[in-house]
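Sequence only, no structure available. Ideas?
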Amino acid sequence: MQTDALDAVPPAVPPPIASPAPEGWQPLPRRARALMMLGMAAMCLPAVPAAAILAAATDVLPTAVVACSVLAVALAFGLWRGARQYACLAWRLDAEGLAVRRGTLWESETRVPASRVQHLDIKRGPLQRRRDLSTLVVHTAGTRLSTVSVPHLDAGDAERLRDALSRQVHDVDD
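Reply:
I predicted one. Tokens follow.
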């Protein structure tokens, strides 16, 4: 029995790895990554004056050296953390309502049934407008987690998502 030569040779390219996000989950647009990184880097900046004050009080190292070192570490950590947040945030709209998945160390998935939606807002900051992004804010009935936001969506996706959720809410009310 003769075998084909191609059957005996393993493929040069390994098979593609399955996507980590299950079907239906939508990632944020690529242009949102820089905004998330910038936002997290800005949140880490208060460490710089705190380290400078501590360095001035202890007088172990020159204050400028400590401040510059802490600035570099804080910015690097903030940029890394923002990139991780970007990679781990996804959303999905289905017949039941909206779902938002986020988290790097502690993952969370928030489901908002259409019957719980009170009203919907779209917010656009100046940096978001420049990159054609929006934040969708879903106000829900209840006290815990009374709002659910999906930051840095594509502006068109945010409007379509708002309209689709509005229709679902209207259909549930009828």
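The first strand starts at residue 26 and ends at 27.
Hope that gets you unstuck.
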